[in-house]
Design brief:
350 residues; Alpha-Beta Plaits; alpha+beta; EC 5.4.99.-; 4-stranded antiparallel β-sheet; disordered N terminus
């Protein structure tokens, strides 16, 4: 049975693996015996060459400037029961941009050219005075001025140099906060719940004074990595389907997976909302009931729906990697601030 698997309880997919690369850098594999892996092809022709893996964007060049920002150490993780003993980190992104190698500066300039304008409601929300929905109400009521002119147009965009005021108060963008949570079960991914269920905000309530929001969503019974931030521009980038942000999950199902179903998942299958295929799939345990799946789709409950469509019940689902971030040194239920290096990678190299 599952509980007798030797060593499984102490190992978690893509977690605590040190410097070992995740399975996404290799062809799909299955474990043949403890400590050994054997490549397995799921194509019809055993002699045919496997399809190349989807290319990841190059981020290795950023390592040349690692001594200038953040280094390699991660921030200490915290539980919801303790108050942070650290001030919210200062991210000196502008300073980094000035000292980075020219190749990296050029990449940053390309990204920033596309993201100069910001929607007014987002600017107001990022100033920390209210939510984006409430910001829309302030705009509609004529409470907001840009460069001395009352703006009531929904969707109005502001430049970084514009002066935005609420009444007589000048609004400045709130200090950005980036926080990574290892979400446990039984918490819903929302800022508040009318049914008084536990939300992920309870887990990070002592982290900072800023108003932060979850990036994307994990089901109530799904565990694993969840990013929270007040950087609306980054949040939109990481959730927009066109950016194809990679996520890795560990999945436990109720019965051994069939080879034909592995092939279907990696080559594509049709769900009610369209075709879907995983970037990669790996069998982790000898009984073929624990799998690793790498996918870039952000569709609702997509991993669960893939396996349910093929007749499997998902017993456990854990997100072990999100946009290159991992659960290293982050126990279940704990959170930590991102390092400056991680923020730069997310903003400019993912």
């Amino acid at each position: 049975g599952f509980e007798k698997r030797e060593g499984f309880q102490k190992r978690d997919f893509s977690e605590n693996r040190g410097e070992r690369k995740d399975f996404g850098d290799k062809k799909p594999v299955r474990r043949d015996a403890e400590g050994t892996f054997v490549k397995k092809s799921f194509s019809k022709d055993k002699d045919s060459a496997p399809k190349p893996a989807r290319k990841e964007r190059e981020i290795k060049t950023i390592g040349t400037a690692k001594d200038n920002f953040g280094g390699r150490k991660l921030f200490k993780s915290h539980s919801r029961f303790e108050e942070s003993d650290l001030r919210t980190p200062e991210y000196h992104i502008d300073s980094f941009k000035e000292t980075a190698p020219r190749k990296i500066q050029k990449r940053i300039e390309e990204v920033e050219k596309k993201s100069t304008l910001v929607r007014l409601n987002r600017f107001i929300a990022n100033a920390g005075i209210c939510s984006r929905r409430d910001a829309d109400k302030l705009i509609e009521a004529g409470e907001i001025k840009v460069n001395g002119k009352v703006i009531t147009e929904m969707g109005y965009q502001v430049q970084p140099t514009d002066i935005v005021k609420y009444g007589s108060r000048k609004l400045n963008r709130e200090k950005t906060v980036y926080l990574l949570l290892n979400k446990p079960k039984d918490f819903i991914t929302t800022t508040e719940d009318p049914n008084d269920r536990k939300t992920v905000m309870e887990l990070v309530k002592n982290a900072c004074d800023s108003r932060i929001y979850p990036v994307g969503r994990l089901d109530r019974n799904t565990t694993g990595l969840l990013l929270l931030t007040n950087d609306g521009e980054l949040a939109e980038k990481l959730t927009h389907p066109s950016n194809e942000i990679t996520k890795v999950y560990q999945v436990e199902i109720d019965k051994p997976i069939e080879d034909d179903d592995i092939k279907a998942i990696t080559e594509g299958l049709k769900l009610e909302d369209g075709e879907i295929k995983a970037d990669e799939l790996a069998v982790i345990t000898p009984d073929k009931m624990v799998l690793g799946i790498k996918i870039h789709s952000g569709r609702n409950r997509i991993v669960r729906r893939i396996f349910e469509h093929l007749g499997y019940e998902v017993l456990k689902l854990d997100r072990t990697s999100f946009a290159g971030l991992t659960k290293k040194d982050l126990p279940r239920g704990n959170w930590r601030f991102l390092t400056e290096k991680e923020v730069v990678k997310l903003k400019y190299f993912v």
